[in-house]
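Meet the record:
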Amino acid sequence: MPRHPRIRSTTILSVRRDGQVAIGGDGQVTLGDSVLKADAVKIRRLHKGSVLSGFAGSAADAFALLERFESKLEQYKGNTRRAAIELAKDWRTDRALRRLESLLAVADAECSLIIGGNGDVIEPTDGVLAIGSGGTCALAATRALLAHTKMPAHEIVEAALRIAGQINIYSNENIHVETL
């Protein structure tokens, strides 16, 4: 067992459907076998509300990355894809940034991306992305809901996050969803 219990938390999910994109997250923050916080908000609107973001991993690291991402959005005039690529380059090559342990999920009207510290910028082919400890549960629920319902994106995000919250011990059903 590690000397210091690992802080675990989060399920972040984004869905695109019928010209709408929604991103949501649960509120759970867990340390070892204890819930530290049940109502954390891990979803943010950036660049005058035109970009949605969510984070999984260390909150302090995520906030540092979100600040850098927002400055890249400003630098590249709201071009989310370009800002993500530039952040990923910096994240991989900067000695201090390389130590940050977090993932970012970002979405705008055009694209949805996962940004990681190894220089990764991943755009899902189906418009669905999920990160965090409950991500695979939420992803499975989302794919089923997309295939078998006509629910709009924000309802799918909410329903899938609730399902993940019932399955994954590091997730809960205290959900925050934003939509573009």
Remarks:
- The mean pLDDT is 88.
- The longest helix spans residues 59-75.
- The CA atoms of residues 97 and 178 lie 28 Å apart.
